[in-house]
Amino acid sequence: MVDSAAGSSAGNAAGTSVGTAQIGVTGLAVMGRNLARNFARNGFTVAIHNRSYAKTASLVDDHGDEGTFVPSESVADFVASLERPRKVVIMVKAGAPTDAVIDELVPYLEEGDIVVDAGNAHFPDTIRRENALREKGLHFVGSGVSGGEEGALLGPSIMPGGTAKSYESLGPILEKISATVDGVPCCTYVGPDGAGHFVKMVHNGIEYADMQLIAEAYDLLKQGLGASAAEIGQIFAEWNTGDLESFLIEITADVLQHVDAETGAAFVDIVLDQAEQKGTGRWTVQNGLDLGVPITGIAEATFARALSGSVPQRKAAVGTLQAHAEPWDVTDRDAFIEDVRLALYASKVVAYSQGFDQIAAASEQFGWNIDRGAMARIWRGGCIIRARFLNRITEAYERDAQLPLLLADEYFTGAVGNGVQAWRRIVAGAALHGVPTPAFSSSLAYYDGVRAERLPAALIQAQRDFFGAHTYRRTDRDGTFHTEWSLDRSEQPA
Ligand code: NAP
C-alpha cells in the first residue's frame, strides 16, 4: 500500500509538519530497499526516499503490496512524512555520502529526532557525527547491521549505538525486524556514540578470522588426505552437526560440493585464489594496534588475504623458494580429520577470545560499558558469524561479566584443553610438510604465550634498557631501574 506524503512541507524548512510514517529509510540500494521492505512487512508505515527517485519508484512498483510505504521525492517531503520523534535510517554508501545526507536532513529535523546511520561507517566517523548532531539536540545512532542483503530483508543482527534515550523509541522497532533466536531478538543497545559501529567492525574482523581458519582446515584436509573438494565438503557437512555448527561451516560444505557448470570441475578449483576485502578487517587490525590488544587471529587472516593478492611476490616465489618438505601422507584418515576439527575449534575460540578482548579494551577506553555476553547473544542469528557456540560465550560472560580472558572460562578451558594435543600435531605437521596455516599457528602461539608463566619479554626489556635506557622493573622488588651498561654496570633506581 502506498500513502502520499502526509503534511505538506512546502516552504517548511523548519520541518514542523507531522506525518504518519513510524520510520523512514533514505538510500534504497540493495540494503536500504530490503530494510525498508522488512519494516513494512512487520507492520510499520515506512517513509522511503532515495537521492534519485527511480529507486524509490521501483521499490513501490515491485513491493508496494508488502506493507505501507510513503514515498517522497524530496528530503523535505520525506522528513515531513514521519511521525515524531522522527526516526530516519540512512542506508547510503559509507563515507562522504553519509555526511552529505546528514547535512541535507538536519535543516528539516527537530530536537529529539533520531538519525540512524545503518551503513558500514568507521567508528571514529560515528563519534564525530554523534558529537555534531548532539549539539543540535538530535540523536545520532551509528548502527551495525550484519547479514547482507538477505539479512536486511529477513532479519539482520543489529548493533545500535547512540544514546540510551534514543533506544527507548527506536529499539522496539529495530528488535521487531531483527533476526530472533529462541524468541530473543538479535538486536540490543550496544553503548554510546561509536559503540555500535565498533562492535560491527570487530564482528567483521572475527568473520575474517573464522573464514581464514575454515580455509586453512580445507587446505589441511586437501593436502593431508589428498581429498577432493566434494569429499571435504562432506566432512564440513558432518562438522556442522556438532560444536562447529555455524552459517560459515554450512556454506563451506555447500560451496565445496558445488560443481562448475561450464567445466564440470569442483567450483572452488576454478576460482582464482586471490581474496579481496572491503576494509573492515584492516580497520579492526589497525584498532587492535592502537589499543595494544593482540588480535593475532584477525591480523593473520587479514594479512593472509593480502598475501594471496601479492601477485608479483607470489610469481617470484613459486618454483623458486625451496620447500625441503615431503608431501603429507596421512595414514589414519579418521584420526587426522578429528585432529583438524579440534584444531579448528581451538583456533576459533582464540580468535573470538581476542575479539572480545578488543571490545573490552575499547569499552574501557571510550567509556562504553559494553556487555560482551549480550554481543555474543545478538550475533547468534542474522549475521555471517552466527553459530551455535556463541551461546557458550554468552554463558561465560553471564558467569562472570568481567571475565578477563574468554579462553580462561571454565567451559572453554575444557573444550580447548581437550584438543590441545591435536592442535599441536596439526600445526607441527603443517610446518613439517610446508602447508601454510598462519591463523592455526598464530592462535596456538597465542595460546602458549598467554598461558606461559614466564615470557622472553624479560630479555626484550633488558635489551631496551641496554640501547635506549628505557628502564625495567624487577621480579623481586618494586620500582623502576636502569643499569649503567656502558659504565660500571651498576644498577640505578630510575
Ligand atoms: P551502496 O552501493 O553502498 O550505496 C548506494 C546508495 O547510496 C544509493 O542509494 C545511492 O543513491 C546512495 N548514495 C551514494 N552517494 C550518495 C550521495 N552523495 N548522496 C545521497 N545518496 C548517495 O548501497 P548498499 O550496498 O545497499 O549498502 C548501503 C550501506 O550498507 C553501505 O554503507 C554498506 O557498506 C552497508 N552494508 C552493506 C552490506 C551489503 O551486503 N551490501 C552489508 C552490510 C552493510 P543513488 O541511487 O541516487 O545513486
TrEMBL record:
Keywords in alphabetical order, please: Gluconate utilization, NADP, Oxidoreductase, Pentose shunt
Q: Which residues form the 6-phosphogluconate dehydrogenase C-terminal domain?
A: 196-486
Q: Which family does it belong to?
A: Belongs to the 6-phosphogluconate dehydrogenase family.
Bilayer-spanning residue ranges: none
Which InterPro entries has this protein been placed in?
Answer: 6-PGluconate_DH-like_C_sf (IPR008927), 6PGD_dom2 (IPR013328), 6PGDH_C (IPR006114), 6PGDH_Gnd/GntZ (IPR006113), 6PGDH_NADP-bd (IPR006115), 6PGdom_BS (IPR006184), NAD(P)-bd_dom_sf (IPR036291), Pgluconate_DH (IPR006183)
For this protein, what is the EC number?
Answer: 1.1.1.44
One Pfam family this chain carries? NAD_binding_2
What broad class of enzyme is this? Answer: oxidoreductase
| Descriptive protein name | 6-phosphogluconate dehydrogenase, decarboxylating
Describe the protein's quaternary organization and the partners it interacts with: Homodimer.
* Catalyzed reactions: 6-phospho-D-gluconate + NADP(+) = D-ribulose 5-phosphate + CO2 + NADPH
- Name the source organism: Cellulomonas edaphi
Instruction: Relate the protein's function as given in its record.
Output: Catalyzes the oxidative decarboxylation of 6-phosphogluconate to ribulose 5-phosphate and CO(2), with concomitant reduction of NADP to NADPH.
Gene Ontology terms for molecular function = phosphogluconate dehydrogenase (decarboxylating) activity
Q: In which pathway does it act?
A: Carbohydrate degradation; pentose phosphate pathway; D-ribulose 5-phosphate from D-glucose 6-phosphate (oxidative stage): step 3/3
